[in-house]
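Standup notes
- DV: blocked on the single-chain target, sequence here:
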Amino acid sequence: MSDAVLDTTDVDRWVGVPLGGGELREPVTVTDIRRWAQGMQNANPLHYDEDFAAGSRFARIVAPQSFAVATDVGHGATPAIQGVIPGSHMLFGGDEWWMYGPRIEPGDSIHLERMLFDYKVTQTSFAGPTMFSRGDTTYINQRGEVVAKQRSTSIRYLVAEAQRLNKFTAEQPEPRWSDRELDDVMERQLDYYAEVQRRGHAKRLWKDVAERETLPTRLIGPHSVQSFATEWRAYNMSIWGARRYRGVSSTDTAGWLPEMSRDFDRSAVIPSFADGLYNGPSRGHVQDRYAQLIGMPRGYGYGASMGAWILDYLANWAGEWGTIVHSNAQYRSPALTGDLTSLDGTVTKKQVDPATGDHLVEVQYTMTDQHEAVMAKGKATIALPVE
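- DV (later): unblocked, structure below
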């Protein structure tokens, strides 16, 4: 049992308070959507191929449902990182999504409403006293339509305790993959997306889905500093001058270590001093020295990207006529450089919503690494067409 104390006094005053924060200045473009599909390694042509998308139900390129988080500044985690906890850092603990129907298309402008929902403090083997705080981000388009709500869980902890306990830095070294192993991974990735493209614009009907049916496996990786950097640049908030700030939020002054803080004075001259990745709280994702500073063994992936991988996996199976209604994912451990991520799912229930008449399937999903260690798990509800 750790003797360290996590002081949450300043957090209390933010619970239930409407928050401000960053928003993107310009409307969504088709290039933004293409960049997102590329960054998330989602080779579904509906989201980047103009000719393919023209024959779809949308008659144009539309964003995947995972794209909502790309219209935020802060990965949807801003409301879950409120209040000052000196000497702290954070990791993503999970994301719950409610999707309300409207899709994001080129030309849309997304407004954000945020609030810290709740928090609790518990002892963990990773960092002793650890806060699990949940915050809501609601995504609203220019027509006033609610696109989605994201309830993000932030794991906030004292870096000194994580360093002392040394849970992750003693893990296995970065794996080395043989050419034969990499060829096998690529062939399986090709098979997965070839099946997505073969299905084309066909409907996956509710009646044709069986309980205990398994979804095809999706492999992502092996991850690298390059792939993590590509993901980061798919978030438009990382582009110089793309964001503006409104209202009040304490995220940027939440008690980050000096090495993980943004330098807003210098960024007035060179924006990369506050871009988060080169200089700021996300630099540990691609720089080992800062990953190890906050208790990670080496470069590690983004929680928001893990959530996007899950949503893309579900949406690719459902097809363009299906809609993810709800998904609740709990994250156990991040993707590390050199790791391979596997997504698998099983249909566990079929039902008809008595209130809406929607025909729904429930899918349990699991994300694992190459050692079959669970990185994330959860379940989703998907609406499928009847005919």
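- Follow-up: The first strand starts at residue 18 and ends at 19.
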